[in-house]
Write a structure and sequence with these properties.
Layout lengths: L4 H16 L2 H27 L16 H15 L3 H18 L2
Length: 103
């Protein structure tokens, strides 16, 4: 199993920033950006777990759940990643989403 510490730390940081963000920041797109990231991470995990299956889309649980959704999605993904390249790609996705979210 690959070492996913850097990935989980990146998501934990993003999640903490989302939880500390004012509602106005979440409404201006930070929550939507986080949901998009959570959906992509969940999709990647599902494809790795079952390449022949149809990935299910993570539902929108509301702006205040966005931090929890990215945390759950990344922990699911971390369980199925097998190499450093996959981890680095996921870290890049998290860091880019956090920049776009502005938190």
């Amino acid at each position: 199993m690959a070492d996913t510490t850097r990935l989980t730390q990146a998501v934990d940081h993003f999640a903490d920033r989302l939880r500390a963000a004012p509602q106005s920041r979440l409404q201006r797109g930070a929550a939507a950006e986080a949901l998009g990231l959570a959906r992509e991470l969940a999709r990647r995990a599902q494809v790795l777990e079952d390449p022949s299956g149809e990935p299910r889309e993570m539902p929108d649980a509301g702006m205040f759940a966005a931090a929890d959704q990215i945390t759950v999605a990344v922990h699911d993904l971390a369980l199925v990643l097998t190499d450093e390249g996959q981890i680095e790609e996921a870290v890049r996705l998290v860091e880019e989403a956090q920049k776009r979210a502005g938190v």
